[in-house]
Amino acid sequence: MPMARTLDGAGQEPAMVELGWREWVALPALGIARLRAKVDTGARSSALHVDAQWRFSEGGAPWVGFRITPARGGDEVEARAPILDEREVADSGGRRTRRIFLSTRLRLGSVEREIEINLTDRRNMLFPMLLGRTAIAGAFTVDPARSSLHGKPPRHLPGPAA
């Protein structure tokens, strides 16, 4: 089944935004202003490194809390979100693990969209986030010869309007 496309205000399909093999992203709903991400069209799902995670219940629904240090030597961020799902995920070595998935906003360049991410330990990886093909489908194209086409987002998320 073809993927549904949203038309812009003029009734045209919006242009696809080009990405390099690595980009800076923000996850504003989680309080993460900027994070290095590897764009990986070979990975179906997106993965976010967490230093620690814990489960709890809110209003009878399952939630996850977690801590992440988005940049080396940077401030630790503590976030929480409802658990969307739990699924088996195979890593690049073929090892399968059960991971928590959540839904959150991704901001990358001029695009902001809802994506699914799973939480995992990526401490031995160069990038704390892996941006998989389901997160980029329909909005982005990838040029593997280029990188960081959209620059770094600001260090801090904008505060509430005064």
Automatic annotation (TrEMBL):
Keywords: Hydrolase, Protease. One of its GO terms (biological process) is proteolysis. Residues 19-152 form the Retropepsin-like aspartic endopeptidase domain. Pfam families: Zn_protease. GO terms for molecular function: peptidase activity. InterPro entries: Asp_endopeptidase, Peptidase_aspartic_dom_sf. The keyword Manganese does not apply. The keyword Zinc does not apply. This is ATP-dependent zinc protease. It comes from Luteimonas soli. The lineage of its organism: Bacteria, Pseudomonadati, Pseudomonadota, Gammaproteobacteria, Lysobacterales.
